[in-house]
Structures are given as C-alpha cells and as structure tokens.
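Methods — Computational structure assignment.
A single polypeptide chain was analysed. Its primary sequence is given first, followed by the predicted tertiary structure written as structure tokens.
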Amino acid sequence: MNPEIIFYNGQFKGVGTFDKKVSAVAIHNKRFLQFGIDKEILNLKTATTKMIDLKGKVVIPGLNDSHIHLIRGGLNFNMELRWDGIKNLSDALFLLKEQAARTPAPQWVRVVGGWSEFQFKERRMPTLDEINSVSKDTPVFILHLYDRALLNRAALHAIGYDKNTQEMPGTSIQRDREGNPTGMLIATPNAIILYSALAQGPKLNHDDQINSTLHFMRELNRLGITSVVDAGGGFQNFPEDYEIINQLNKDKKLTLRIAYNLFTQKPNHELEDFTHWTQTTKYKQGDEYYHHNGAGEMLVFSAADFEDFLQTRPDLPTTMENQLEPVVRLLVKNNWPFRLHATYDESISRALNIYEKINREMPINKLHWFFDHAETISDFSIERVKKLNGGIAIQNRMAFQGEYFIERYGKDKTLRTPPISKILAAGIPIGMGTDATRVSSYNPWLCLYWLITGKTIGGSLLYDETNILSREKALELYTKGSAWFSNEQNEKGSFVDNQLADFAVLSQDYFNIQDEEIKNLYSVMTVVGGTIVHACEEFANHNPPLPPVSPDWSPIKYYGTYEKNKIIVHEQIHQTSYLKHHNCHPATHGNLLGCFCWAF
C-alpha cells in the first residue's frame, strides 16, 4: 500500500503516541497507514506521494465534540453576532450598535449564547436601556445561557408581545407598572419562552444557509475539530432542517464528520415520533462523514430537567415514568442507542429506575446509551450507570455558570459538579463537548481549559486537585473518549494505524504553554481523512477555498469569529469611530479601550 500523502517533521501526541517519539505519518485511502520517525516514514514515499513538512509543530488527533448543535447552529451562524471571547461589555454593545445599523428589515440582530456576564471586565449583563439605545427600529434579541433573553422594543413588537400576552408554564415575562413587557424574558426554569421567541425571527434563504453551514464547519475546523455528535435541539425538525446538511454531504462538501441524534419536538407525542423514525430510519445509516446515531437528547419532554442554576431545581412531573418507559422500550427493541438530557441526580435516578426495569427484560448494556450533562450525579447513580454499561457526555456548562451554582449550592457541592474524576474512576466512558451554540461557546479550548484548571471563563476557581485533569487525560476525553458516543472508538480519536486520518496541527504546544494560553489555541492546519480542510499562517498555501460570507450584512463578514486577535479588530473599530465622532488625533487617543474619555 503506497501512501498518497506523508506528513513529517511534527510532534504527534495523542492516544497511541503519548509514550513514543513520533514525527511522521503516512496516509493511504483516508486512513493512517503507519506512524514513526521521519527516516522510516519517508522511506515509504513514491513518485506520486505528496509531502508536507509540519515544521516541528505539535499534532493532536482531531477534536471531537460529543454534544454540540451543529446542524441548527450552521443554519444560523452567519446571521448571529457572537460575543464569544469579548472581554468588555462596552465592546459588545458597540458591535451590537454597528450591526443593528447595517442589518436590513425584517432581519434581527441576534446574540445567541456563548457568553457569560462574568467574561466582561464590568462583570454584568447589559441593561434593557442599553439594548434599546443601540437600535430603535431593528429588532435585537440577546440570549444569555438558558436563563433569560433581552429584547429591545422593536423585537417585542416583532414577536407580538404586549400586556395581554400570557406566560407559558415555568416562564416569566418581566413587566412594568402598567403591565407591559419590558423586554426581559425569564426561564423559571423552563426555557421554552426563550427559544420560542427566537424561533419567530426570519431565517436565511437556502443559499445563505448553505454558506452559513460551510463557514461554521470551517470555524470548527480552525479550532481543531474534525468530528461532532449533533444532539438535535429545540425547533430542529427532522427531516426538514436536515436538508442543508444532507445536500452538503451529497455534494461531498462536509469538512468534519457528523453523527446525528433525532430529537422529538412534540410534547405528549414523543412515542409517535420515535415509532415513525424507527420504521423509516436505520441506526448508523449514512457514511463516515454523516450518519444516524440514535435518539435524544430529548426522549420525552417530561424527563428533561433544566440547568438554570439561577432557579431552584425543578421536580420532574409524576407522568415522566409512564411516558419515558414506552419510548425507551421501543428504542431498545430496535437496537437504537439513546441519550437523555439530565442535569440533576434526582432526574438521573428516576430514569435509571426505568432503564434497570427494561434491562431485566431486554438488555441495554450493549447499546451505547448515555446521559448528557449529569452535573450533580451521585456516587450511587454512577455505580448504576456502570452496571448498565452506559456513558456520560460532559460539557463545560459550569465554566459559564459556575458562579451561579456556587451562590445557590455552596462551594463544597461545587467541588464535584460534575464529578469527572469519580466517573473516570468507575470506568464509565466520558466524552467531552460544549453544548454550543446557545449555552456555551463552540470553542473546544475553553472546555479543555476548564478541565485542566477547574476555572470558569470569568476566572472563578470551581474545583480542587481531586477534580482537575492532566492535559493528556483531558485531550484523551476530547478525542478517543468522545468517539465512544458515536460507537466509533475503534475508528477515530487515536494515533493508531488504520484509524481515520483526522488530526490538527496546533498554533502552540498545548502540553507546555501556560494555562491561560490554552484558551487562545487554534489549529494552523486541520486534516480530515487525509485531506486538508483548513490551513493558515505558514501553511496558508494549503488552505482550501471557501466562498465569501453571505448575506452581505452578516456579522461574521465584519467581525470574524472566535480569534485570538479579535479584540485588536475591535480596538481598530473603536478608534475609527471615536476619532470620527470626536475629531481627535490618533496620537492623543491611541488606546481607546483604556482611555478614560471613551464612553459608549
């Protein structure tokens, strides 16, 4: 077998090479053919073998987000203004104002997740007055985690909210003295009010959704991601909202591997959905780039708790068991893996009662079933999951709302929320992810930073050394660990011969840089199946073409994505606008973000 391509002069570090000196790899038929030092691998080249010098860079297996909402996120990426990584609220508001000015009717300005008030130096959220000041006519919708949304008056008008609008169960509409909505929508703790309001915004057209998904995938590639497990999501209907990703796969334009779960959208009709889907969709149907992965994370609405730590823990309704059991029985009978959103141990233990009951009649221990989130899972529940051969997909949601958890439950309980070390010690599969894009940022390095330091994005320390991982173990969970959750642990995630040739070449040495620098890592070259899907800096000549961002008013076109130098771009925007407004000289106000006279 002659290699089509050889990558050499690198430092390959991942499961399979952690204890070896490996600098090169030969690739054949989209898979790793052989790893080794340069001399032995270069001996494999032929006249047709392509050679790429890695210039001494650290190379890791491609990152795999085991819980992300890629399909829904791709449909919306180009029309969302991202505050991910912004350090100052004044910057965030400035971008909001500029974007509102260029966004055409009837479109909205949307800031949808990926940020926390604690990332700002001001340590607060924007006020409604500030939101209204940026735009009189263009609707502005800002989602903060899954606890609240801020809407300006134009957005309230667009969704038809007035003094006669009634609250949905488990939600609250903040009102003024006359009973009119102020623009604050609150999950108490049901988030349906937040994403049902968001769903009323205009969508992108078909061509722009294609473009948007391409750019979202490239952004994930830029951060070193080569695989994801799509967890479905609210208002992500099957098969309608999968048409774009289906087309891209058909046209061979996917730049990462997607395993997708089916998420029911109809409360009290969940069994009907899964009965239909198990009759029309086969588990694992698809290919190495795009395939079906089972059911969830919503199996039945009555079984889903909510992770809003600003609110007290919700009790699941008494109808939960009667609704969940027939759905799980159906899935097990059809050999479908399943995943279930469960934040609290109280929810997990009730679901386990059902799983154990079914397992006594139809074993589930060979299915790759798992819980998502599991922040407060108990030691006893961990033992029960282990006995049923389940897994736990963990995301860095605590990095975005750990401060809220500490305030409500105290520091002692926070130390094991979630108890990652306990789960690992029990031998339970763990896969890492972000739950992006409506809660956490899609940036995997924020998750790895959280695992390694135990800190939130606002800098608060959550854990002691008993619940903090080494860099090697954290990387293992984000690569080989996550592959278990799509039943592909023997296909990808490790530097092992004959696995899929997916890897990322890092901008810095992840294993030796300072902790704070981990958040700034990205990939200078990302490879999927032996094909380069992203390249920059010294490898820029290998970067595959990408169509310009559309539509023309897209925030992504003007502000880019989650980049290390993003704040520099914002400083330039501030400087240009400030000098124009105040007729100042650049020499006088060269550093406007730190200038005492700058005011939004």
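Note: Confidence is low (pLDDT under 50) at residues 578-600.
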